C-alpha cells in the first residue's frame, strides 16, 4: 500500500477489540516512528506507555479526578463519571506524550512540532499493522490537576494522549474539503 493511500485511509479509531496489544508491537512501532524522526528533536519528547491493567486503571482514575475537578465535571453525576472512568480503563492502551517546555519560543515550537510529527508518524505506522489510535487533547487534560495526576512536570508541555488497540470498527470516510479551498495568495507577492 502506498504512503498516500495509508494517509488518506487512516481514521481515528474509537472502537477497539478487547485484546491486549503485545508489548513488542507497540514498542517496535515507537522505535520505528522515532527512527523516522529527527533524533535530536525527539530528545525533548517523553512517551509514557499505559497498556497494563494497573496502569490503565490508574490513568483512568487520574483523568476522571481531573475532569471531576473542572466546572463541567462538578455538574456531572457521579454515576456518569464512574461510567466514563470504567470505559476509559477498558481501552487496550494509552500513550501520554509530553515535550520539554523550556528555551526560546522558537525552540519550544520546534520541539512541539517534532513531537506532533512523531505522533502522526506513529499513527500511520500503527494503521499499517492493523492498530488504530485516537489522539486526544481536550482542554480538561491541560489543567494543573491533570498535569500533576499524569506526572507532567512543570518544565513539560502535554502534546496529547493517544488511545490504541486493534481496530474493532473503522468509521466510514468523510467528505474531504478540497485543499484549494484552504489556500490563499499572499497579498502583493
From TrEMBL:
Cited InterPro entries: NAD(P)H_nitroreductase, Nitroreductase, Nitroreductase-like
Superkingdom, natural source: Bacteria
Residue span, Nitroreductase domain: 7-165
Residue spans crossing the bilayer: none
Xref: Gene3D superfamilies: NADH Oxidase
Cited PANTHER family: NAD(P)H NITROREDUCTASE YDJA-RELATED
Name of the protein: Nitroreductase family protein
